[in-house]
Write a structure and sequence with these properties.
It contains 8 helices and 13 strands. It is α/β, with parallel strands linked by helices. The strands form 2 sheets. Strands 8-7-9-10-6-11-12-13 form an 8-stranded mixed β-sheet, sandwiched between helices. A 5-stranded antiparallel β-sheet has the order 2-1-5-4-3. Helix 6 runs parallel beside helix 7.
């Protein structure tokens, strides 16, 4: 996977940038993100460092950005039109590229997210989400929401919790992977390990994916990333009423911000029983776990 990922990333860059990268050890195991902006030097983000590094002393031109766009689309923008309309491209190796720029023009700004499946990062969190962990009982979890600002690691945690819950014995898990970040499907085949009892809906919007999963696949658990759209509350409430357990993420700074959002549509009907707040510092990530009422249970790392 590492070699495939490095090669996939390398061939995204325009030819003149590739020549420069040959002499620089730009690919490391802690590479998380690459920011490419027209008129600016590329920025590489490693580990928990938020400022990024600029190893290349050259600014990207508009021609560079257009050349990259051709590579990203495989010289066929039509084939990727559905993803492009949503502002991203999903590549082999689980790589996801966010797009920005002038409407109806080739993008001039790219955010390349390099997926890292960090197996085990959810092990200390999982016990606080289980309703009953006795061997003779059916595994069930509290309806759980993972909360953090963008880029803090909520998707990484969600991915590992799905895998761990499959291992723990939840028989059918449906994952709505709207932006190809959880399973990192390529050609319909997951590149990440989400467990042996997990079914993936890649590229489905939440409403269509949730409805189809509940009606046809009989999930015990429904996992969704980055809820917040106008129709999300209604479809997730429907799943809850059908007896499906819910594991979801949401952008939010802290539990106080969530409490404010909780009073507003479309989330007023969602009854999350556990809230996991992701915090990032120079020492790494830690997780504050709350009851749905806002009472703090513990802090784990």
């Amino acid at each position: 996977m590492v070699r495939e990922q490095k090669d996939e990333l390398y061939h995204i860059f325009p030819r003149r940038i590739r020549e420069m990268l040959r002499d620089f050890p730009w690919y490391r195991e802690d590479l998380e993100e690459i920011r490419l902006r027209v008129g600016q030097t590329p920025r590489f983000f490693y580990g928990n460092a938020r400022g990024g590094e600029t190893p290349l002393d050259t600014a990207l031109t508009a021609d560079d950005m257009r050349e990259m766009y051709e590579y990203l689309c495989g010289y066929s923008k039509y084939a990727y039109s559905g993803q492009i309309r949503q502002g991203f491209l999903a590549l082999e190796g689980g790589i996801r590229v966010g797009l920005a720029g002038q409407e109806n023009s080739d993008p001039m700004f790219y955010n390349i997210r390099v997926p890292r499946q960090k197996k085990g990062c959810g092990e200390n969190v999982l016990p606080y989400l289980l309703k009953d962990a006795r061997p003779e009982t059916t595994v069930r979890i509290y309806h759980t929401l993972i909360l953090s600002p963008p880029g803090a690691g909520k998707t990484t945690l969600l991915r590992d919790l799905i895998r761990l819950l499959s291992l723990a014995g939840i028989g059918n898990i449906a994952v709505i992977d709207e932006r190809y970040e959880l399973a990192a499907c390529h050609g319909g085949v997951p590149q990440n390990d989400l467990g042996a009892t997990t079914d993936v809906y890649a590229g489905f919007d939440k409403e269509r994916g949730c409805m189809q999963a509940v009606r046809t696949m009989g999930p015990q658990l429904l996992a969704v990333d980055e809820i917040g759209g106008s129709g999300d509350g209604e479809i997730l409430s429907y799943a809850m009423r059908c007896g499906v357990q819910l594991l979801a993420t949401m952008h939010g700074a802290d539990i106080e911000g969530y409490a404010w959002q909780r009073k507003r549509a479309p989330f007023a009907e969602l009854d999350f029983e556990r809230i996991v707040e992701v915090e990032v510092s120079s020492r790494g990530r830690r997780y504050r776990i709350f009851e749905g009422t806002g009472k703090e249970l513990c802090v784990v790392s």
